[in-house]
Amino acid sequence: MLKKLDPKKLKVNPFTLMEDEWFLLTAGKKGDYNTMTCGWGSLGTLWSKPVAFVFVRPTRHTYKFANKYEDFTLSFFGKKCRTALKICGSRSGRDGDKVKEAGLTPVFTPKGNVYFKEARMVLECKKIYFDDLDPKKFLTPEIEKNYPKKDYHRMYVGELRNIWKG
Question: Which helix (H) or strand (E) holds 121?
C-alpha cells in the first residue's frame, strides 16, 4: 500500500531513479489516457516549488494527452517491472491496449489521474510550464544525435502535488 509523503522527505537518487530504473509518464483520466516509458527527466525545485521535469516527443501518442490535461503522473516500479516498461515504451496506445498487454493495473488518484497498482512510488504533478526544445540553443553539438528525425521534445514542468511511496 502506498503512503502519502512530503516532497522534502523524499530520499531518492534521481539519476538512478529516472535513467536506470525508468518510469511511466501517464496523462489523462479514466477511459481517456495514455502512458509511455521514460528514461529522461529530473526532480528539483523551481519557483520555490518541488517539481518534476519530463520530456515527450511530439510523435508520441502520449503527447496529445500531456497537452490536453492539466495533470500527469509518474509511476516508478524498480527493476521488477522492466518487461512491462519495455512493452509500454515500444508499443503505441494508438494501436492497442499496451497497459493490458504489459500486465499493469490502472488505478486512480483522488483527482482522477491514472497510475498503476504495481508502482512502488507515484508522483502526481500539475503542469505549470512547458517549452519546446530548440536545436538552435543546443550548446553541445552531440545533443543533436538524439534527434535523427528532428522530433525535438517538449519539456513539461510539473509541480509535485502528491507523492505516494510504498
Answer: strand 121-132
Number of independent structural domains in the chain: 1
Asked if residue 33 lies in contact with residue 65, where contact means CB atoms within 8 angstroms, the answer is: yes
Note the pTM of the prediction, 2 decimals: 0.94
pLDDT tens digits for range 46-64: 999 999 999 999 999 999 9
Q: How far apart are the C-alpha atoms of 147 and 153, rounded to whole Å?
A: 9
Q: What is the CATH number of the domain that holds 63?
A: 2.30.110.10
The answer as to whether 82 is a domain residue is: yes
Give residue-wise pLDDT tens across range 114-164.
999 999 999 999 999 999 999 999 999 999 999 999 999 999 999 999 999
β-strand 3-4 against 154-165: which pairing, if any? antiparallel
Count CA within 13 A, CB hemisphere, residue 9.
8
Question: Residue 140, Cβ neighbours under 10 Å: how many?
Answer: 6
Alpha-carbon torsion, ordered 48, 54, 58, 59, to 10 deg = -170
